[in-house]
Amino acid sequence: MKVRIRGKNDKMTSGETRYATKWMSALIMSPQMMPNITVTVLFEREEGLKGSTEVVGDDIKPREFIVAIDPNLSRKSQLRTLAHELVHVKQFSLGEMRYTKYTELIKWFKQTIHNEETEYWDLPWEIEAFGREHGMYIRYIDHLAKEKIRF
Question: What is the pLDDT of residue 139?
Fold first, then answer.
């Protein structure tokens, strides 16, 4: 996996951001997929959002993504948000989720979901991302402690 870092962040080094991105991605993506994915982690505040994931280029089989994270969040919240957004990277890159030509309609596996008419907390891609983010964060923190890794 290629990881680029953009923007300023006082709570997490570029080295840790790169390491956490690769380590967390390896929890949910196959080793065959990882070398083909490029993620740019952009530390930038977006009003009302902790983070977001944007597909760059081809939206049928995307391999390049921008993951934006609010740098004003605590380190813990940044890492949890990173985990959450990496689940979306996995969803897009495997074709589990994809945009249609109509921005309000999203394909989730074979089902078309009207994004604007469905409650945010009921969106299946958000259910998966929120369900995985805490466990990915805990496993990452435990891994750093066990391996005595410091940034």
Answer: 98
Angstrom distance (rounded) from CA 54 to CA 2: 16
Alpha helix positions (H), the chain: 14-28, 75-93, 124-147
pLDDT of 100 strictly over 90? no
The CATH number of whichever domain residue 17 belongs to comes to: 3.40.390
Q: What SS3 state is found at 38?
A: strand
Number of domains in the chain: 1
Assessment of whether the complete model's pTM goes beyond 0.70: yes
Domain span holding position 15: 2-147
Amino acid identity of 22? K
Q: How many helices (H) and strands (E) does the chain have?
A: 3, 7
Is the CB of residue 95 less than 8 Å from the CB of residue 125? no
Tell me how far apart the alpha carbons of residues 68 and 85 are, in angstroms, rounded to a whole number: 8
Rounded Cα–Cα distance for residues 40 and 20 (Å): 13
Q: Do residues 41 and 16 make contact, with C-beta atoms less than 8 angstroms apart? A: no
> Could you tell me the pLDDT band of residue 17, with boundaries at 50, 70 and 90?
very high
Tell me: pLDDT of 60 over 90.
no
Q: So what's the pLDDT on residue 52?
A: 96
